[in-house]
Design a protein that fits this description.
- The chain contains four helices and four strands.
- With 128 residues, it is of the alpha+beta class.
- The longest helix has 22 residues.
């Protein structure tokens, strides 16, 4: 298995078909400043494939959207072990949508994402 502190290309969700299926059939919840949409899938290359989205409606400048996505990716990379440990043999697709209208600092974002990943773990185990 690969190191938990990496974020490789196979972990990114890119397929439009899979993304459409995720949005239409996925389970979701809101945990400020994130909206989480996730869907359990029977087979995948990686245990979790993730898509990070920052709406253009809330952040007009691409520079702002990209910097927020960069921050979220970095925090996710550091703390994805929280998610991987409880998955066992399950595989999921995950969409993280940043819903705040302001850019929050790294430490606050880290706290919120950790809280969100723990809540997602709970939801996944409840569904089983």
């Amino acid at each position: 298995m690969l190191s938990m502190q990496t974020f490789i290309k196979n972990e990114r969700l890119c397929s439009k078909l899979i993304i459409d299926k995720l949005v239409n059939k996925g389970n979701s919840f809101y945990n400020s400043p994130f909206k989480i949409i996730w869907h359990e899938i029977p087979q995948s290359i990686m245990p979790v494939q993730i898509l990070i989205s920052v709406p253009k409606r809330k952040f007009k400048k691409a520079v702002d959207r990209n910097s927020i996505k960069r921050l979220i990716r970095e925090v996710y990379r550091k703390h994805k072990a929280l998610l991987y440990t409880n998955l066992n043999t399950k595989k999921i697709n995950l969409m993280l949508i940043y819903t705040s209208t302001t850019i929050i600092n790294h430490s606050e974002l880290e706290e919120k994402l950790i809280e969100t990943l723990k809540r997602l773990n709970k939801k996944i185990t409840e569904q089983s």
